[in-house]
Structures are given as C-alpha cells and as structure tokens.
C-alpha cells in the first residue's frame, strides 16, 4: 500500500518542492514545529537514540516517556507511531540500508499493534540540510520510497526536511533541529539532551565500525540492551588520534561545515575507546551477553548484573 498525505498517495515522480506545493500544510507544520522553544530533556524518563539505533515503546511504559536523538546533519530522524496502540518508534538513519531499516521499524511498531482494531500508522520525518553533495536530499527520497513500498498504509504527517525547493528546515552551515517525542502524548518538540548514555562511547564505536540498524530497547521488560558487539581493531586509529581537529572534521564527517561544536571531541573520545578495546568480545562482553540497563528509582539507567538478568 502507498505512502499517503491526507489520504492521497504521494507522487514520487515529482520533485520534492512539488510535494510541498501540493500539500502546503506540511510546510506550515514544519514552520510551527521549528518555531517552538527548545526544551532541555533531563535523563529521567529519557531514552536517547544514537545513529543507527532505534527504540520502540508504548504509552504503558513505566520507565521511558521520552525518545530523543540529535546531531542529524545529513542524517534523518524518523518517528513512526500507530495511533491505535500508541506504539512509537524513533530511529536515526544515515542511508546505510534504508529499505531494510524502514521494514525493520515497521515490523517493530506493528508487533505492538496487532491486537488493535483501530488506528493508523503515521510517520514524521525530521532532519537534513542543504549540503553540497545532496546527501540529505537523496536520503529523503530513499525514505519516502521505502515507506511507499511497504505493504501497509503509512500516513506522512510531518515533513521537516531540507533540500532544494523544499521547506528550509535548517539553513546551510547551521546546526540542525533535534527532536524528542513524548510517547504518552505523541507530542514532538525541539530538544537538547545533556545526558546521552549509557555507554555513549561504546555505542558510538559500534557505529564507527560499520554497525547495522540496531534495536536497543525491550519495552516489555523496560530494559535497554547494548550489544554484544564485535569488531576488528579499528584501522589506523593511532594515525587519526594524532591528527588535528580540522583533519578529523574534514575526513570523518559527511558534513564538515554543519557539525555541532562537540563533533571532534566526540570522535576523539570514540577513537580512544576503540584503541582501548580492539577486541570488545574479550574486554566488554566476556560472556557474549549484552550490557543490560534498567531505570532506577531516580529515573537513571542502572547496569543490571548478569546474575540478575
């Protein structure tokens, strides 16, 4: 079944500007969304999703009420929600395997919605900027096409992306919008996240070594699962750690002119982690079991000991 806007199938043969022209309410909604004040989301109730990760939960979750992600320059952030069950997914896509990723998140949301006799699937697309190589524009089209190929109707509700002749979501050389979604109310809003854990460096290392899209959360047990991950020693890690900030920015980013100020320090931290853990199966996952976290009484992620898993 097709990808729909107001009950009509999107014509993907049009330029993206044509889509906006045919459905001006999408542009108005994008303007309204980005005009909202940015909210600081504290760790309590938050599940932060990194690049090539996704998480799904429902309004019944007693541990997680907010899903959030940021730093999507050429990447896109997807919120997929079933209006009947309230099952909500947030994922951070970079175009590595778009069709497979969309199918995966569709299946994950539907698995919480099979018993619901009403409701529909709604998708919200956020991210990208006017990059010279048009990586953002290509990813936008890939995502629209991937949703259009799904066997279920999917309704495009929010289209806050950027490309030529598209709604300007974030201007060139400016930090892009970072969304959060309240899984209880379905509200999507601009946000910043002082805390991006747990295991931020470990999860980033997984991405830098070529991770596929990974589900990090089990909503039924309300536990966060990290790994087990396996990689080979990162090539030339000492060389990269010796480079100055500009070299790292230019060579390890898809969008050097649009990265946030902390990009280089984040990459250095990840490279240092990779150097310290060339064989994670030995140092981080000795029993080939995931690192499992649950929210404690203060609402913070707490590592669960293996004998309690």
From TrEMBL:
<dbReference type="Pfam" id="PF14736">
    <property type="entry name" value="N_Asn_amidohyd"/>
</dbReference>
<dbReference type="GO" id="GO:0008418">
    <property type="term" value="F:protein-N-terminal asparagine amidohydrolase activity"/>
</dbReference>
<dbReference type="GO" id="GO:0007613">
    <property type="term" value="P:memory"/>
</dbReference>
<dbReference type="GO" id="GO:0005737">
    <property type="term" value="C:cytoplasm"/>
</dbReference>
<dbReference type="GO" id="GO:0005634">
    <property type="term" value="C:nucleus"/>
</dbReference>
<dbReference type="GO" id="GO:0008344">
    <property type="term" value="P:adult locomotory behavior"/>
</dbReference>
<dbReference type="InterPro" id="IPR026750">
    <property type="entry name" value="NTAN1"/>
</dbReference>
<protein>
    <submittedName>
        <fullName>N-terminal asparagine amidase</fullName>
    </submittedName>
</protein>
<dbReference type="GO" id="GO:0006511">
    <property type="term" value="P:ubiquitin-dependent protein catabolic process"/>
</dbReference>
């Amino acid at each position: 079944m097709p990808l729909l806007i107001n009950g009509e199938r999107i014509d993907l043969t049009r330029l993206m500007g044509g889509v906006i022209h045919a459905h001006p309410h999408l542009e108005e909604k994008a303007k309204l969304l980005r005009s909202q004040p940015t909210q600081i989301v504290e760790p309590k109730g938050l599940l932060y999703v990194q690049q090539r990760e996704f998480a799904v939960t429902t309004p019944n979750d007693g541990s997680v009420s907010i899903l959030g992600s940021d730093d999507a320059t050429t990447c896109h952030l997807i919120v997929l929600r079933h209006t009947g069950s309230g099952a909500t997914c947030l994922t951070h896509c970079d175009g590595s395997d778009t069709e497979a990723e969309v199918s995966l998140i569709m299946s994950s949301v539907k698995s919480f919605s099979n018993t619901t006799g009403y409701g529909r699937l709604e998708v919200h697309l956020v991210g990208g900027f006017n990059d010279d190589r048009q990586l953002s524009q290509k990813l936008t089209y890939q995502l629209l096409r991937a949703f259009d190929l799904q066997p279920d109707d999917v309704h495009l509700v929010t289209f806050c992306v950027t490309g030529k002749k598209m709604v300007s979501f974030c201007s060139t050389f400016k930090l892009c919008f970072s969304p959060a979604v309240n899984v209880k109310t379905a509200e999507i809003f601009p946000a910043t996240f002082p805390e991006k854990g747990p295991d931020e460096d470990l999860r980033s290392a997984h991405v830098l070594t070529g991770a596929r899209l990974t589900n990090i959360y089990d909503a039924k047990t309300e536990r966060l699962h990290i790994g087990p991950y396996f990689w080979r020693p990162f090539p030339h890690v000492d060389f990269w750690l010796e480079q100055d900030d500009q070299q790292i920015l230019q060579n390890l980013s898809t969008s050097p002119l649009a990265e946030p100020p902390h990009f280089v320090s984040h990459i250095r931290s990840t490279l240092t982690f990779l150097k310290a853990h060339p064989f994670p199966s030995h140092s981080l996952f000795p029993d080939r079991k995931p690192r499992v976290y649950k929210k404690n009484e203060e609402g913070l992620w707490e590592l669960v000991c293996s004998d309690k898993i």
